[in-house]
Design goal:
- This protein is globular.
- Helix 3 crosses helix 4 and helix 5 packs antiparallel against helix 6.
- The protein starts with a strand and ends with a helix.
- The longest helix has 19 residues.
- The strands form two sheets. The protein has an eight-stranded mixed β-sheet with strand order 4-5-7-6-8-9-10-11, with helices on both faces. The protein has a three-stranded mixed β-sheet with strand order 1-3-2, with helices on one face.
- It is α/β, with parallel strands linked by helices.
- The chain has ten helices and eleven strands.
Amino acid sequence: MLLTRPDPTSETGPVREHPNCSFLLIRCSFPLIHFSFLRNSAWRPARPGTVNRCGVAAPETAAYACKARPRKERVSQVGGEAPRSWFDRLTTKLALVYPPPMAHYDSAVRYDVVSQDVEYLRVDGESLLMTVYRPLGDGPFPMLLRAHGGAWNIGDRLGAASIDMQLAECGMVVAAHDFGLAPAHPYPVQVAQTNFAVRWLKAHASEFNGDPSCVGGAGDSSGGHTILLTAMRPRDPRYAALSADGIGDDAGLAFLIALWTIVDPLARYQWAKSEKGANVERLVRSTENYFRPWDAVHEANPQEMLDRGEDAVLPPLLVVQGTADGNIPHEIPRRFAESWDRAGGHAEYEAFPGMPHGFARDPGPETDRAIALMRSFLARQING
């Protein structure tokens, strides 16, 4: 008799997302026997002490029983552990040999993608929306939260929708969210709302066929600054101040993409003040509107955090930057990528000669190259 691992992409693959996962489903197709576990988002059997593809470690006391229906503890008549039934022993062994499907990202695959708007937070009667781009497939899919740009003062979640769609169609749940804008909402409001958005997305992952254990972040321009702070300080009490029923406290991000990002707001501000023109004057005002009091431009500065040796979380990072960017001199993000590496992280910096700020939002050969680069980076981080 030959035992085979079920193929999650086949029609006979594992049954998933069933509300009752406390039993083992054995399916027979002579002469093969397929053993599959019914899966839900609360059950993540893994070998204790191992690390999954998104860098999430299984606890040393990892249990292989489903959490959806806890069993009563039985006490042994002779003391010590309760005796384990043959069924418990069998399911434990099979969980080791036939784990549930893990999140996977394939840059060569194309899924149909649907989008929907959801309210993730309400502040003073104002609804903050998130647009979720969901592949139509079996999953579970890795997830990505993108913070939009706009010099902290303008913009919305739809500003880079074309990038979101192209990343989603390879098998990723991509979400873009709105947040409070300066000057009405200075630092750290945007970071706190983004921290909450990460936790909200993880709590609602099953609604989008996503894997809450494999979530990354992306940001463009000032949104890149926001997502970097969120990732580097996931447990900062100021950033984690927002709460809601059913929302956990894990705001960690497993990988990052920084698109033409303000990685050093002070250096960008000093450069803009030295330049002439209406655009750079707007950048100066926008920076002053956001960092209030002004000392926050140092405290909330990703480059300075690395320079001063702050104990920050450093997920794998991809930096995409055009060399003809009229908003951010390309030397600033290049230096940041080098500092990220020196601090113990892994950063990949890719320059796009002659490309302006935000270039990958518009069709063109360099946009195609940037999208391919992002897809390749994501696949390497997620698939191992």
